[in-house]
Amino acid sequence: QPALAEEEAVYRLKWLFNISVAGGLYADTHGYFSEQGLSVVLKEGGPERDAVRELEMGQALFGTASADQVIRARAMGSPVVVVAQLFQVNPLQWIYRPGELRIDRLEDLRGRVIGITYGGNDETIMRTLLAKAGISEDEVELFSVRYDYTPFFQGRVSIWPVYRNAQGVILEDRLGRAGEKTAFFNPADYGVRFVANSVVTAEKTAGRSPDLVRRFVRALLKGWSEAMDPKNSAETIRTLRRFDRETPENILSEQLAVTRRLVVPKDGAPIGSIDEAAWRQTEQIMIEQGQIQEAVGVEKALRPVF
Amino acid sequence: MRLAGTNITFHYPGAESAVFKDFSFQLAEPGFHAIFGPSGVGKTSLARMITGDLSPTAGKIAREGIDTVLYCYNLERLPGWSSVGRHLDRVTPEKNVGRKEELVSVFGLQECMGSKFLSLSLGQRNRVNLLRYLLQDFQVLVMDESLANVDEKTRETILLKIKELYPEELFLYISHNVVEVSKFCRQIVVVRDSDKKPQGLTIRGVDHRNDREFPNGRLEQVMLEIMNAA
Amino acid sequence: MRLAGTNITFHYPGAESAVFKDFSFQLAEPGFHAIFGPSGVGKTSLARMITGDLSPTAGKIAREGIDTVLYCYNLERLPGWSSVGRHLDRVTPEKNVGRKEELVSVFGLQECMGSKFLSLSLGQRNRVNLLRYLLQDFQVLVMDESLANVDEKTRETILLKIKELYPEELFLYISHNVVEVSKFCRQIVVVRDSDKKPQGLTIRGVDHRNDREFPNGRLEQVMLEIMNAA
Amino acid sequence: MLHRRVYQFLIIFALGLGLLFAIKYVMGLSDYVIPSPSGVWETGKETARRYFGDVGNTLGVAMAGQVISVFLAGFVGIAGRRATWFGSFIKVAAYNVQAYPIVALAPILFILVGDGLFTRLLIAAMICYFPVLLSVLGIMSEPVEDIEHFYRATGRMRWQLEVKIRAFENLGKLTTVISGSATLAFAGTIVAEFIAANAGIGYSIRIALYQSDMGKILVALFMIGIVLSLYQGLLELSGQAVRRAWGGS
Amino acid sequence: MLHRRVYQFLIIFALGLGLLFAIKYVMGLSDYVIPSPSGVWETGKETARRYFGDVGNTLGVAMAGQVISVFLAGFVGIAGRRATWFGSFIKVAAYNVQAYPIVALAPILFILVGDGLFTRLLIAAMICYFPVLLSVLGIMSEPVEDIEHFYRATGRMRWQLEVKIRAFENLGKLTTVISGSATLAFAGTIVAEFIAANAGIGYSIRIALYQSDMGKILVALFMIGIVLSLYQGLLELSGQAVRRAWGGS
Ligand SMILES: Nc1ncnc2c1ncn2[C@@H]1O[C@H](COP(=O)(O)OP(=O)(O)OP(=O)(O)O)[C@@H](O)[C@H]1O
Ligand SMILES: Nc1ncnc2c1ncn2[C@@H]1O[C@H](COP(=O)(O)OP(=O)(O)OP(=O)(O)O)[C@@H](O)[C@H]1O
Ligand SMILES: [Mg+2]
Ligand SMILES: [Mg+2]
Q1: Centroid of ligand 2 to alpha carbon of B122 (angstroms)
Q2: Which domains, from first to last, does chain B contain?
Q3: Alpha carbon of C70: minimum distance to chain D alpha carbons (Å)
Q4: What is the CATH number that goes with domain D2-248?
């Protein structure tokens, strides 16, 4: 039976309603939040949105934020803590046409036209990779990436950053229909494990209402687990279709499959597990790339609920 | 040359009463003629019908042997970016350049040639405006209070000069000055209230010219006729 | 009450010659006075100095016993959104409502009350504009060609009425009509070219009123004086 | 007049589409760069209804935003019309706020007013008000001597009257600018939706962009064009009605 | 006058900053949400020079964009001033293009003209031209009867003359709008840089936004404000000079 007074909570997502927030939507539509006595409002995100800010302003109780965002906020004294890590593998990868080039080693990047979003974390990741391979900046051509993919479509840029599970699938499909093959370059394959989306809340919330946080995370992760469970595929897709009307079903199901690979931990750990080593590496990369001045002790911000 | 209106009725849209009811006039010869009548009787409206800017509600305006009817009025302005002199130069046809010089001096405008229109006095504006029209090609020129703000002496000089220079053209002079109208005009179309019958009367004026003896006594008679008509 | 200018010199910035050089005039009593002179001589400029809109380059204008000087001219317009009648109602002080009714009828404007200003004839516009000024509080009213586009008969009626209704006020009438100026004005300040000495002459006019016998022969004399002066 | 606007829009859109398709075939671009005519048609059939609804939603916000912005422009224009210190101050403020790109202000706006309809409205109004303001400023700072003289001379001039006189004398210009500003309100609302909303055609465009679906974008542009042409036409008609009613020329 | 503009801008900016800091301290927000005064100061010292250069770069493009847009607006306004079929067609086209959000057009633009300076210019001009256009349309479609009568009556009226007369009679309004549109050109250029360029202050703002660095954004806004106030002031002065030189009132 519905709880008499459900606690209200705003959950600010990182992006629009799409496959990357499947677990949240699933939890919401399947009443998992209600089960925990919560009434959660999911709000779409976007580049101009910042869940960490909203936590502080009191406009949201929970949010999804990327690791670099969290670390940067911590560096500036923001009391944000991480309660779960949604993606075990960063979905930010690079798409390319294998017919045009092969990437088997980092050295293969040499001389290529590589798309990066200046200021975005794909820049950070790519620079780390290049440094790792000992490729200097004038040995590649970095191309500033914008909203649209035309330069990649036209072949002016050969490696283009995408979210593997979302746009990646769409592009794969679109190019596939034109008879072109695509492949993805995944930094994690080369040892760069830059953490992506995590669930965050304010230190205050975690400290004062640990129970609330626990119930929220429990519901949310239940949503993710169910949504990622292959036997619920049809139901997950049906749920997504209600929010993401723009994406055709066949694409959605492919997106779901890819997302599953990125979200479900390989070692059998539960969904949402925080990979502390990856977080440390992320912090290290940010220091090396001059994103932050000094270590913030990121492990202090990690408060795995389970 | 013939300019005539027959049974003209005119009604401004939305206005209560007609300005013209069954109004007729006829001017069969060139020369300096007048439209005369009290303020608000319809002189400007008549002029605009003659030029074709307004169309009579009923009746007809006939223009025979007339190609171009020009209408000038006392509120016109010259563009502000160049001096009066430059403006006149630009709008004077080649063949009238000599005439322009002559008129500028008769009109007493030599000193204004370097000024902008905005810095002229009212009467100077009146004269400049009339002047540029006189340099154009026309058979009929309607002068709607074109000299209303000019002093009498200058006005007289101007009118006499016009009559001397333009014997072939037809002028329609609108003015509230009875003496002037009586003295200089050949025919005076007196417009009366639209409920008078006939609404228009045509009176023969003195038509004074430089080259003609001024017939004594005739002026008073014409003035009286006009007064009686109006 | 005294309105006087002493040794006024005035030069428009940028203009070649001075409009006024050492010009003086004096009007010591209320009544209907005139500023007269050929077009372009400086009447409007003088009026604007009297109202304070222009400042003489040298010399002084003295206003004694005069609080408010109003200036009205023939190019003014009324706002277009309401009828003439409504506009007049809004700008008429309570105490002058009766006078307004009277003036509207004397000015022959009854039929225009429901019209928009834009659909009035020129002379009607002149009259409406003057009328609203007459309903305000003033000691001096400058009428710069305010009735230039009104017919003579109406003008005469209007002038006589003004003189009857405003015995305490001082009017400065600017007009190019010698007869009118001579006949109705008390003192006529004749403005002459700035190189004449003295530049200003004051002539006593007939100052005709409704309640006074018209002195025969006097008019011609005044007109002659004015002509000679100018 | 209304239907003329619409078919003129259709001609223009057809020309634009034709150009795109020509480029596609001349340069041999594949369907993912520029979709094929049939692809656009298919996308149109699928999404037209939905997008039409979205545009309707956007139109609602744009109309409200336009009203706000016209008032805002009127307010600032009237306050800033004089060459005084305060007038200049108001203008400097108005101009500066305008110069700041909305994308840069958005984070600050979100902090100050949160998200929701209000932000959307605010952004739409901010984009729309400035051009109206410029016209209002231009018109309001120029005296209409022939009319104002009387009021000034008799001590009757009030700022309301001054504003009324100048507005009336420039009614044609004002109505042109105001009805034209509908376009800006529309564009502004779309931008606002793009960065701050989860409804409206701007939101749909964002998704389409994110999916790199040019077909959908073309359909969206079509819907925007049709609706805007109609709205614009209606505004112009009512502008004419206002001019007639107020007795302007 | 110029220095007045600048210090008025400083007052406004200080007020805005003060408000932000007040919010920060009242709500106890961290430096991440709103940087501390000292943080802003530090960021300022670090980035001011660079940003100043960026703003200069942007200003250059904005100026060029403004010139283009004024010509464009003049062209469209003159072509569209008549109530003819063609006039209406031109207007429908101009209005529609404007209504399309630049973000939606950007992909098409990239296909057509590629990215780089030209796109930046084009977008800046597109954002700036429309408000100017509205004014030009309003002004150009209203006859100045008292002046035009002569030319029309004597068959001398040419469109150039008509345009010249109407422009001259509305010089004050036109210069207000044109100098005010500098602001729009500026904003437009920033937007263009934001979505399409690798230089200029818009590009820097974008990077700062990605890094959630509010301090940098504030510094950028400050630089934009200062430069714009100066540019705006200069434009107004030259507007006055034009009016004086052309002998307008
Ligand atoms: N546009 C208009 N709409 C309605 N009525 C008008 C319009 N123009 C003029 N009228 C009216 O028509 C009548 C005649 O006007 P018109 O201007 O022809 O007079 P007029 O003889 O030229 O007078 P004036 O000597 O004062 O110039 C007037 O009563 C005037 O109020
Ligand atoms: N703003 C101005 N700038 C320069 N010169 C001017 C200006 N206004 C008037 N003038 C000149 O000053 C002289 C006097 O002008 P003013 O208007 O006072 O004459 P007026 O006597 O009123 O003439 P009118 O009877 O024609 O109205 C004229 O020669 C005129 O050209
Ligand atoms: Mg008339
Ligand atoms: Mg004068």
Answers
A1: 7
A2: 2-229 (3.40.50.300)
A3: 6
A4: 1.10.3720.10
